[in-house]
Design goal:
This protein has strands at 20-31, 40-51, 68-70, 74-80, 86-88, 93-103, 108-117, 126-129, 136-139, 144-154, 165-175, 180-183, 188-193, 195-197, 201-203, 212-223, 228-231, 236-243, 250-256, 262-268, 273-279, 288-289, 293-295. By secondary structure, it is an all-beta fold. The chain has two domains: 20-192, Macroglobulin (MG2) domain (Immunoglobulin-like), CATH 2.60.40; 195-295, Immunoglobulin-like (Sandwich).
Length: 298
Amino acid sequence: MSPWGPLNPRRLPKPSGSQTDKRISCDIELPRGPFHVGNTLHKRATLGVITGALALTAFVAPAAQADEKVGNVKVSNFVINGGKPVVVGATGKKTVKLSFSVTDNSGAWRAAAQLYHGGSLETADSAAASGSTWIKCKKVSSTKSTCSANYTFKAGANAVNKVAGTWKTWVIAQAKDTNFIQKDNAKSFKVQRATQLQGADVAPEPVAKGETVTVTSKLTRANWDAGTNAAYGNQSVTLQFKAAGASAYKNVKTVKTSATGDLSTTVKASVDGTYRYVFAGSSGTAAATAVGDTLDVK
């Protein structure tokens, strides 16, 4: 099976009841699986819907349109990767969990969700999908269900350098009474390139009080396209110091990395303590903290 899940439409059983079963057809453009960026394919998700006195014929929901809603069904409480950015290394893959709630007075029936990068799902330049068309939903009460699924990001596949940054969550959910909701961006989140800061090195040591020491390190960042960790130059990194016996670090100064990612700055030794570098990161690049080096002042 493709990592994108089943690609052909399939008929699913309708909820129990005496109404006539109709179908909602949702035509969505997704990046081609498995995990290729730049191409698209036609993926159809079919939602069976019950009609009563008012018959629905077909509902086509291209992702480029505004959000769609019929009735009072709601989706909420979206959590992706425990609320943390999705950080992917230079090689390998990262699997994360998406969970959310579906609420309707008749009860939730089923839901589908895709994670994607781009203006809309229809024009996405990369995406991640669960292993099946419909994701698992667990009944919490007569009106509420919690739905969840796992999604995988693979370096060099659906995680390439140009798609680092803000991603979106497309979702569609249907209730037992025919209510449905489709949201093009139910939740935004970050997918970031991993960074590494070499452990700080303070030299010379030990030193006498008032002498100058040099604190060095190196900053690198995952290059998903090349599958390597590359020097990350011209970046602002904070040097911090924690005095012996203290509980927290304090900022000392901001230092810029060289073109080769190297960090080097000098400080006056005053008391025993530990120096380290901290990189704050950005929308598409993860934060990093170097292992500290303890200075002994004689």
